[in-house]
Design goal:
alpha+beta; Glutaredoxin; Antioxidant, Horf6, Chain A, domain 2; 2 domains; five-stranded mixed sheet; three-stranded antiparallel sheet; about 30% helix; about 25% strand
Length: about 240
Amino acid sequence: MEEMNQPVYSLPRIGEPAPAFKAVTTQGDINFPADYKGSWVILFSHPADFTPVCTSEFMTFASMEEQFNNANCKLVGLSVDGLYSHIAWLRTIKDKIEYKGMKNVEVTFPLIEDITMEVAKKYGMLMPGESNTKAVRAVFVIDPKGIVRTIIYYPLSLGRNFDELYRVVIALQAADEFNIATPADWRPGDDVIVPTAGSCGVAKQRMEDKSGETTCYDWFFCTKKLDKDTVLKKILKK
């Protein structure tokens, strides 16, 4: 009977609309994801204010905010703490904390108050195996149409890799813009994957392509060049 009474937390799926909610944040009220239509968004959760791993993450995100904004990507944080705790923590970060050469760091992106855990539950950010009262380090990348495109979860003890989160945003946009896929460890300027042909005839035609644009190693694995400037000029604002 005890197992039957355990709470079940849903998890949004990639390719589905991001669950909608209204919330109070350190930057005012938001209506998510409607307020972010037309922009990519990283919605991320952290276990608790005034904790060391979370502090290092917020300083890193804040220091990279302009870089994400230039890629048309907004940042939105969340924990199950209250608004006044958020404000006090962010003030402490700015006034007292120095990490990897970062200091006087001001967090200007919104941090959601979620003391009722309503948003955390909608996004499956609570993992009873980790903690019943703290959100895990969840990351949701949501596209300009409000669709969930990537989900990454970290345990409480593991800080995130922010270079990877930025790479994910750029790679998703490149895939959309150029109708390609990105191989392992892809960075702008690396060769990209040409989507698998839908028929044997198309596959044969592509294998015999003499233009030099596409290199096929077999019918299912073809790559082509996509230079760094072409990618970044299409994605970045400046």
